[in-house]
User: Which sequence fits this backbone?
């Protein structure tokens, strides 16, 4: 056998080996869910996101009006992390949305508009929550373990804020939310309001973060409070409504309410309005609110005045 033949044989063997490995590689990819990275990558990324401190940034912004010094860096780091992780295909579209919300958060934090920074931070924080829940649900399904409810994890209470921080052995405190006596106000104008009592029988405080109705019914829904200013009742938008542990909060005429704006049609007595409530810990809660005449003590007429503050 001459040297040339041996060389050719070696090259052929090398090519075959490469092809065999390529085939193995493809087979390994087929085993995964389409588009999925490894479990370890996904777990590492979602753990980092869970511990990034978006909650603390939002709380500090809300309470002091100033974000923590590293808030923008955190948003940018989390944006890179979410963009670069090979999420399973089911999660790739929410991941894209989350990455862009984190980008908006970083941009808003770089500016000096506090309200804008707060709004962008709240949006990114909420999206991160939903994304984390979806990711862990995916992982639990893949692992064949039981699924958790979207409630429970008391993610680190903000340092320096009022209230006891959970001790190491007590991080699984729960918020158990029920909504009672929901009702919405009849309206033939472009605004209405909804009221209800939120009860929390759990050992962790929760927050009502937002409310929404079908976009075919109203263009905007906000959480409002009403305060007396110089003898006039004025409405203000609030970022959230606290629901104490083992306690309740009542949304009622003259106080906290769900403000339904840009109504696209009349709300008639006897119909039912579906309202989706988003809680920080308990997640989404859907309520069916009967539309009815609601008497507002101290205010004339059946309809609420238009907001004089906020938007
Ligand atoms: Cu209002």
Assistant:
């Amino acid at each position: 056998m001459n040297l040339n033949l041996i060389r050719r044989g070696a090259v052929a063997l090398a090519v075959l080996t490469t092809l065999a490995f390529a085939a193995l590689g493809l087979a390994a990819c087929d085993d995964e869910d389409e588009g999925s990275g490894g479990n370890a990558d996904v777990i590492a990324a979602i753990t980092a996101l869970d511990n990034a401190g978006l909650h603390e940034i939002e709380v500090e912004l809300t309470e002091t009006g100033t974000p923590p010094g590293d808030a923008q860096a955190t948003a940018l780091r989390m944006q890179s992390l979410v963009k670069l992780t090979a999420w399973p295909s089911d999660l790739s579209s929410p991941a894209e949305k989350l990455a862009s919300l984190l980008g908006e958060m970083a941009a808003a934090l770089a500016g000096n508009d506090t309200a804008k920074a707060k709004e962008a931070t709240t949006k990114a924080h909420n999206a991160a929550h939903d994304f984390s829940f979806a990711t862990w649900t995916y992982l639990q399904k893949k692992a064949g373990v039981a699924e958790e409810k979207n409630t429970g994890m008391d993610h680190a209470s903000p340092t320096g804020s009022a209230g006891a921080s959970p001790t190491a052995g007590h991080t699984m405190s729960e918020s158990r939310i029920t909504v009672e006596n929901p009702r919405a106000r009849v309206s033939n104008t472009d605004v209405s309001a909804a009221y209800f009592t939120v009860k929390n029988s759990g050992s962790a405080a929760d927050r009502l973060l937002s409310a929404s109705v079908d976009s075919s019914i109203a263009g905007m829904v906000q959480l409002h409070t009403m305060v007396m200013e110089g003898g006039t009742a004025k409405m203000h938008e609030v970022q959230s409504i606290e629901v104490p542990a083992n306690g309740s909060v009542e949304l009622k005429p003259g106080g906290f309410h769900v403000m339904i704006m840009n109504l696209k049609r009349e709300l008639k007595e006897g119909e039912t309005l579906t309202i989706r409530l988003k809680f920080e810990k308990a997640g989404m809660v859907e309520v069916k609110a009967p539309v009815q005449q609601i008497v507002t003590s101290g205010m004339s007429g059946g309809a609420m005045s238009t907001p004089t503050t906020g938007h």
About this structure: The longest strand covers residues 218-229. The chain has a mean pLDDT of 79. Residues 193, 224, 235, 257, 259, 307 surround copper (II) ion (CB under 6 Å).
